[in-house]
Design brief:
about 325 residues; homodimer; alpha/beta; about 40% helix; Rossmann fold; NAD(P)-bd_dom_sf (chains A, B); two-stranded parallel sheet; Epimerase_deHydtase (chains A, B); 13 strands
């Protein structure tokens, strides 16, 4: 990836005021891209005006929903679409499955149909998720060939979204790439509630000097990708044509148990308390167990690897949220 | 399965005026069930009033869409739901993907959500499809553990529908069973156009003394299930509690090439003409190649096997359509 790969290029970010979208927007403004953000600003999804406050005069912002009939007018001249819009709460998907389907499956079809008819030469990078593997059945780390078996509504609808992107590549020749994300964390993340993954909530508890309640023994294994590494992956696949049509896992430098994560946070903020509680029943039913992703495919194809280790990433994240806390509570 | 298993039981059939739905309705009326049919009657999907003309005073018919807010009132007292409503044309799904998603994914969520809140003890038998396997990667016959990789929009949305049913069993304890159907054929099938599978169209061509145009060499392999065998499978899984939560392939007595099928039809009606044409490009792109299903799991679990061979089934089918042709053109 060269420094000027994005200079002057027309780039659209869906979910552009959200966590990953807004961080991508900052990286692209720095690289002198011509950036448009769209965001439906549905409450609790992650869109936050504070995320783009410092670049708002350097980007175009369109407050709209991907289901809008106006979508063709927004996408028609774009070179690249970073497609981050989504509902990411597993718990919310079980409470309101139809909304999850609307956002994660139907909206994706709208975007792809718009591109099919109004901009078939665009490149689209889609934010998929390791959730589609479900409870893993093979020895970790898990690669992209692992069987698909999502454990919740969100996983099923995200799977549809990814399959739609792959299909539009195969059948209509649209350049699509899907990145299967695992626990991403960093500045500009939604940390206000506990329904968008435990890492966001752990960060909330730490910055507020509160208590982390681990479910069960806290020995569940996960991997983590710091936002700068996530952004790096999105930018790289956007400019590498041999990524077209591919699906890639992201991952972390090494896996951690949730207890280890909590202990790192306690080292950073000794006022944090840690306790253990029984696994809540409605969460246990959709829990995926341990997960460690194999990211060797994207490393081999385009040279990506995670560079920021968890302790360093969490320190940067806490520094950001301490400075900007009022925008995130 | 005992003769009186359905006597007096409240049974709902979604897509009840369609091909499989109406044949099930006839079987259930004979077995003295208390039958309700719902059908959205969306043009070209398969709903046909002629399919239930002779039993219309013995069943309740509700012309409604599964997305209706009235659905809870229809499902709340049912013992069993045969869930046949769907959009089954692969070609149509590629022309109008959003409608396919509405019918095959969103409508299924509406039904399951209704049952979750208003009738959690109901049993649901869902009509899934072998389309979700896509181009098969293993030596035939293909069993239920084959990787999932649908080749078209219809396959992706039908997959969502099946995954939703399995999830509502696992998480909410609703008794669901999915049958992955392969080419079904028989009386009351939609044969008016060529977009609901080649076997329906071959039957149309035969009954009208026209020409079957085989794509390529006509040596593509498929299996076939006659409607009486399909109905038998639905009835059996409905009363067998060890089918709850399961997914089963159906299949045929033996596989045939499309050329063989055409030749059988020509034996039945010598006026039929057979020719070969190049594979149309838009069909080739979503074609699944050869397919033979392994139905040993449902045979082992509940004793089902296909009984009607293809020549016998096609003879019965043609006799029906010759007698009732005006209702199907």
């Amino acid at each position: 990836m060269k420094r000027n790969d994005f200079a002057g290029r027309k780039v659209l970010i869906t979910g552009g005021l959200g966590f990953i979208g807004s961080n991508l927007a900052h990286a692209l403004v720095k690289r002198k891209a011509d950036v448009t953000l769209i965001d439906s600003m549905i409450p609790d999804f992650g869109g936050n005006e504070a995320n783009v406050e410092d670049i708002k005069h350097k980007v175009r912002i369109s407050y709209t929903d991907m289901r809008s009939f106006a979508l063709p007018y927004i996408i028609k001249n774009q070179d690249i679409i970073f497609n981050l819009a989504g509902q990411i709460s597993h718990m919310d998907s079980m409470k309101d499955p139809v909304t999850d389907l609307e956002i994660n499956a139907k909206s994706q079809l709208h975007l792809l149909e718009s591109c099919r008819y109004h901009n078939p030469s665009v490149k689209i990078i889609y934010a998929s998720t390791r959730q589609i593997y479900g409870k893993t059945k093979q020895k970790p780390p898990i690669n992209e060939d692992h069987p698909i078996d999502p454990t919740d509504i969100n996983g099923i609808n995200k799977l549809s979204g990814e399959l739609f992107h792959s299909l539009y590549h195969k059948v209509f020749g649209i350049k699509t790439v899907s990145l299967r994300l695992t626990n991403c964390y960093g500045p500009r993340q939604l940390i206000r509630h506990d329904r968008q993954g435990f890492i966001a909530w752990f960060i909330n508890r730490t910055v507020l000097n509160k208590e982390i309640k681990l479910y069960g023994d806290g020995l569940q294994i996960r991997d983590f990708t710091y936002i700068d590494d996530v952004v790096d992956a999105f930018l790289r696949v956007a400019v590498e044509s041999n990524a077209d049509g591919q699906v890639y896992n992201l991952g972390g430098i090494r896996p951690y148990s949730l207890l280890e994560v909590a202990k790192i946070l306690k080292r950073i903020n000794p006022k944090l308390k840690i306790s253990k509680i029984p696994f809540p029943r409605e969460r246990k039913k959709i829990d995926i167990g341990n997960y460690v992703g194999d990211w060797s495919k994207i490393h081999k194809d385009i040279g990506w690897k995670p560079k920021i280790d968890l302790e360093m990433g969490l320190k940067k994240t806490l520094t950001y949220f301490r400075k900007n806390l009022s925008n995130y509570l």
